[in-house]
Amino acid sequence: MTEENIHRIGDQVVKESDLTPEQHHHKNHVISLRNKIAKLQFEIDDLVPSLQWHENALIETTKKEAENLSSEEKASVKES
């Protein structure tokens, strides 16, 4: 004897065999979309630290560039 799948839909508990074809269709889409969202969230969680690292590296290099420009500007003012 096999157990029948039971689904919680909102606040209802429904047997797999009680679902209409349309309800099966929607249930399958819900499952698929939840899985895709979970996969994409995992990828986002993986990508965000890398993005932050590169943003910080860019900010640091622009600070150095700005410091170099300031030093060059000060030197050119002294020469005038």
Descriptive terms for the model:
80 residues, mainly alpha
Can you put this structure into words, describing what you see?
- The protein has 80 residues and is mainly alpha-helical.
- It has one domain.
- It contains 1 helix and 2 strands.
- It has a two-stranded antiparallel sheet with strand order 1-2.
- The longest helix is centred in the middle third of the chain and has 59 residues, at 21-79.
- It is rod-shaped.
- It starts with 5 loop residues before the first strand and ends with a helix.
Query: What's the main sheet like?
Result: 2 strands, antiparallel
Mean model confidence by pLDDT:
88
Specify the oligomeric state: single chain
Strand order of the largest sheet: 1-2
Report the portion of residues in β strands: 5-15%
The share of residues in helices is over 70%
Count of folded domains: 1
List the helices and strands and how they pair.
Blueprint (H helix, E strand, L loop, with lengths): L5 E4 L2 E4 L5 H59 L1
Antiparallel strand pairs: 1-2
